Amino acid sequence: xxxxxxxxxxxxxxxxxxxxxxxxxxxxxxxxxxxxxxxxxxxxxxxxxxxxxxxxxxxxxxxxxxxxxxxxxxxxxxxxxxxxxxxxxxxxxxxxxxxxxxxxxxxxxxxxxxxxxxxxxxxxxxxxxxxxxxxxxxxxxxxxxxxxxxxxxxxxxxxxxxxxxxxxxxxxxxxxxxxxxxxxxxxxxxxxxxxxxxxxxxxxxxxxxxxxxxxxxxxxxxxxxxxxxxxxxxxxxxxxxxxxxxxxxxxxxxxxxxxxxxxxxxxxxxxxxxxxxxxxxxxxxxxxxxxxxxxxxxxxxxxxxxxxxxxxxxxxxxxxxxxxxxxxxxxxxxxxxxxxxxxxxxxxxxxxxxxxxxxxxxxxxxxxxxxxxxxxxxxxxxxxxxxxxxxxxxxxxxxxxxxxxxxxxxxxxxxxxxxxxxxxxxxxxxxxxxxxxxxxxxxxxxxxxxxxxxxxxxxxxxxxxxxxxxxxxxxxxxxxxxxxxxxxxxxxxxxxxxxxxxxxxxx
Length: 507
Fold this sequence. Notes:
Blueprint lengths: L1 E6 L5 E2 L6 E2 L2 E14 L2 E13 L9 E3 L14 H14 L1 H10 L6 H10 L10 E10 L3 E8 L4 E6 L4 H9 L6 E4 L3 H10 L4 E4 L1 H29 L14 H26 L4 H8 L3 H9 L19 H9 L5 H10 L6 H12 L9 H5 L6 H9 L7 H10 L3 H19 L5 H9 L4 H12 L1 H9 L5 H16 L6 H8 L4
Parallel strand pairs: 1-5, 7-10, 10-11
Antiparallel strand pairs: 2-3, 4-5, 5-6, 7-8, 8-9
Helix pairs in contact: 1-2, 1-3, 2-3, 4-5, 6-7, 6-14, 6-16, 8-9, 11-12, 14-15, 16-17, 17-18
């Protein structure tokens, strides 16, 4: 550690209270101030300053110490340039990492000191923004959220707001009357806040969110259509299915087929959501199923078949004799029962009558075996969504085959051209056909498409502005990612005031 002795050369100083200049020296004072290092050696300045007498008899200040502006502040233990360097380190690296860096630079301070310096340093005022992007960010995901405001022209964060309530956004917008354009996501809460706080501003819906909403609409349609397409494909296996050894009544078969179709549809929905990356808890919440049922379908390799325990019947030992008598032409249930009774059958005649009835009314369309189910292979849900929303010129031959198969469904065949038209309008920014597209979708037989068109109509001005103006929320999303990085870097110390200081930092 190096110590450098420094002495001021002033002969007069102004009183900080009354402003009267004094040349009367009362005494001297020694100050020790830490400065930037020299090479690998730390530096401490031993500053000798003067204490002056105030000669103004009406001033309550009897004596005062001269100040050294631009070098060291009053009562400071560091020079101004050292504090500036530490402020930059704290802004860029944070508390813990910044403290480790200062030790390597021979400026060793604690992480708490670095954060205190960051809080004490004022933020330079930025020019008033005219084009902003606004979005929410998670303080604690799923529980608490704030709002970030970004200057899209200067690529800088303007402010962080405490929450995402409409009242908070309205109050902030009223303090910025110069705002002319606001880019946002599809949130109606922010739309209402902008309309109330800055009714003169042009709202621009984010194009990425428009495409995302379209993909979600296509996904909802596929969740409803894909199970039906699967059932249609599997129904072709009925012709080659083996006949049951003991056929059941037609009413029982219809009930069993309906139950099995529902179980198959549920299995396909769970597997498609699983392939899309959703957890068991979220699938149970979305589909309204129990956690146990979702767990079984989630981990099943094929459609779970219902296994009923076989209960032996008193008629089993006599089935062979009954088949011989029926083959000989005897179909009278009472006669067969009397013959079985003579052979030792202990049961009543009802069981024999039911067996004979089933033999007479053997169904022509037996139940499909489980092997036919496992042979069906349909594309996954993400693949189907991508094929229906991607540029047709960029599809591979396999994707084109999937598209052809999907268009065999009447609902998807009508959905595909409308989805492609909307994607083209957004990608190429063509607002001319927007109204006609909304009118066409409003009359579509697909409910999800009608609901999507209704949401576009509700936000039609912002959607049209998105297709006309170059602004979007891409910058805002990028600043949110930067904010998340700072928040994770400051784990345990990331309060809103400190986050605001660091996100507004501009070197």
